[in-house]
Amino acid sequence: MINSNHLENLLNEMTIDEKIGQLLQVTVPFLTGASSEGQVTGPMEEMGLHHHSIRQVGSVLGSVGAKEVKQIQQNYLKESRLAIPLLFMSDVIHGYRTVFPVPLAMGCSWDVDLVKKSAEIAAKEASVSGLHVTFSPMVDLVRDPRWGRVVESTGEDPYLNQLYAKAFVEGYQGEDLQKNPETLAACVKHFAGYGAPEGGRDYNTVDMSDWMQQEYYFPAYRTAIEAGAALVMTSFNIINGIPASANQKLLRDTLRKDWGFEGTVISDWGAVKELIPHGIASDEKDAAKKAITAGVDIEMMSTAYLNSLNDLVIEGMIDEKLIDEAVLRILELKKHLGLFENPFRGADEQKEKELLLSATHREIAKQLAIKSSVLLKNERKTLPLDKSQQIALIGPYAESQELMGPWSLAGKQKDVVSLAQGMRNISPGMNVNIAKGCNINEPIENGVQEAFDVANTADVIVLALGESEEMSGEAGSRTELTLPNVQLELLQKIKSCGKPIVVVLFNGRPLDLREVEEVADAILEAWFPGTEGGSALADLLFGSANPSGKLTMSFPHSVGQVPIYYNYFQTGRPKEQLPDEDRFASKYLDAPNEPLYCFGYGLSYTTYSYCDLKLSSNTLSINNKLDIEVNVKNTGQTPGEEIVQLYVRDLVGEVVRPVKELKDFKRVHLDPGEEKEISFQLSEEQLRYHHTDLKNQSDTGDFEIYVGSNSSDTLSMSFQLEKNEGGAYENNRNI
Which residues, including other chains, have CB under 8 Å from residue 417's CB and lie 6 or more apart? Predict the structure, then answer.
């Protein structure tokens, strides 16, 4: 068994070039044995890498398949003087071969255990295919749907994001990475604040106060680290004027000193060299100096370290100890994964055949897709559909298998169940006529007329609309959040048929749905639902499953409202407290302040009533907990699962406090007519927040409790937090 002394001895045997090689990550085509070997072109060719550098590289990005990984590792070790194995990393974001719904969709399930299970399955499939590290979870807090990467986040709430961050890390890593080869090391990203770019434009400037970072943006990163995440990836943006990959305060002070992180820090793709266009490094050498000094251990897909670190040491501009500590962290990660004992780790072609896309994995993917879908509208009980109805299935997503969404690299379209196929599987003899109508962004000759003709023969119309996969994700920023015009034109034409319309949406972000909402009788938000998307949606459309998903990101009325989120700060002139005719309130002249669909919103095929909210006391102190009870009843005719949400407002704080903050939630199954008493407990610790001195403590005084089905529709009661001897309660964490 390799121990820390062995690693120290190994480090002492390494030449400076071998050390620097460990800090470089390249993509698969550079390595001997890769299926794409010899196809290094374009920007990769410009990196100027040579064989002697490649045989010392420490990690590889983007391999797919056990056979290829084993071949690369075997060939690499033949040429490695010290037989230090390669690390294989990839973007396993929402599943490997079995693709689950995108993370924003998973967030809307409010099912933390099922999300953790999806990470376990992703780790099993990816590890038997030879991978060691996943660049997941992305725990960036998001409030602006113009930013395409909201699709990779679980939403706008810091508390919920913390729960999911922990679930993903524990799901990927299991209890012991070294003992269990069917696991992956998790890399939490993007540290820090990447989810708040100005204008919602990817890679753009982020500017926020230290207080805002600590209170809202840092908690999910820290939770992931406390859950044991083995790596942290730096973000592309600046923090306090300095790009994350050169930010010593962020990486050495906050991450390592304050939070105690001892794992590996990796840059995002090319981020070290990008310090030059950022304007804080004069050249590649300066970039290398600033990144290694800040604490970046692995440079992904640029060669500032390779080309400059040796010279920097020789010239006395950095201490070689900086390189040694980075190398040692990488070696520790390889030891932790058991690679020195077994450089092939879990790679196993036979297990690949058994595990990848297994029936069990597909069933979990289907269940998560069901729970992730959100019913936004259902007028006149248009849904669920009746199998005896004549149905027109229309739209660019009617038969499309492009349902996996961004970052589904190992997924294959041929494995995806389309909406049409899912409906056929429900009832092979069902009367469904299909017309595409248009492409996602382009018209089809006579397509609208054909769709109109098909719609006219139907009892009910299902319109499958949405964004393309490329319209969200990295570099997928948009200034308009409506559906493409060609789809809106199709919608208006179909409206003229006068038939009930069900819109099923496939997208990676909240959209401006005003035109859709005006026309559709029912709207089902499917997101990008993954491999089993069509099966899940068919179950929902025909009532075999009852929708239970709730939004974890607000849907705006228009792009002019964004960023928009539920836990906003009240102003000195809140429109709610001023007369409607008062111009001088905080409001728009041409739109409401409120979102079209709020955080926590989601309908069901049944209805629920809330009553009899009770508190065990009208006071709370550090010595007790406040018991909160509410009665929830299924007042409809269908069994369902309701997500009961608990919010709190601190009415007077040292700094302004949000109008509501999610503190807890519970899933409850209710049969028709069934009523249950739902209980929560609230502690003083849950009322703590960061003050101006960045201490995390609570304030005595008045609070409001809200319990309901979403962030807007709630019952409320008041209580007081009592003083202790010091007048406030304090600790260093608030999870």
Answer: 401, 425, 531, 532, 533, 534, 535
To the nearest 10°, the Cα dihedral for 166, 169, 172, 173? -110
Residue 211 is given by DSSP the state H
Contact 31, 55 (CB under 8 A): no
Please name the residues in contact with 485: beta carbons below 8 A apart, sequence gap of 6 or more.
none
**Catalytic residue ranges:** 268
Q: What is the pLDDT of residue 38?
A: 43
How do residues 503-525 score in pLDDT, each as one tens digit?
999 999 999 999 999 999 999 99
| Inter-CA distances, 208 with 205, 214, 238, 304, Å | 10, 10, 10, 29
Cα separation, 261 vs 452, whole angstroms: 59
Neighbours of 483 (CB within 10 A): 23
- Cβ atoms within 10 A of the Cβ of 593, count? 15
Cα-based torsion angle of the residue sequence 613, 616, 617, 619 in order, rounded to the nearest 10 degrees = -90
> Cα(166)–Cα(147) distance, rounded to whole angstroms?
24
Q: Which residues contact 13 (CB under 8 A, 6 or more apart)?
A: 82
Reference 649, options 561, 714, 732; nearest CA is 714
Angle at 307 between CA 306 and CA 312, to 5 degrees: 100
Instruction: Single out the residue of 85, 172, 56 nearest to residue 122, CA to CA.
Output: 172
What is the per-residue pLDDT for 581?
A: 77
Buried-exposed string 238-253: b where 16+ CB fall within 10 A, e elsewhere: bbeebbbbbbeebbee
Question: Residue 724: helix, strand or coil by DSSP?
Answer: coil
* Rounded distance between C-alpha atoms, residue 50 and residue 149, angstroms: 34
Going by their DSSP bridges, the two strands 675-682 and 626-634 should be labelled as antiparallel
Determine the pLDDT at residue 3: 79
pLDDT for position 75:
94
CA-CA distance, 200 to 480, in Å (whole number)?
A: 11
| One-letter amino acid of 690 | H
| pLDDT, position 734 | 41
Residue 703 identity (one-letter amino acid): F
Other beta carbons less than 10 A from residue 677's beta carbon: 11
Nearest CA to 129 among 335, 357, 315?
Answer: 357
**End-to-end alpha-carbon separation of the chain, Å?**
37
Average pLDDT of the segment spanning 391-405: 98
- Supply the pLDDT for residue 2: 75
- What letter does residue 713 receive in the DSSP assignment? S
Q: Nearest 5°: CA angle at 16, between 11 and 21?
A: 85
**Residue 446 pLDDT > 60:** yes
Strand partners, 537: none
The whole-angstrom separation of Cα 729 and Cα 684 is 8
* 324 within 8 A of 42, measured Cβ to Cβ: no
Tell me how far apart the alpha carbons of residues 261 and 332 are, in angstroms, rounded to a whole number.
13
Kind and range of the H or E run holding 719:
strand 714-721
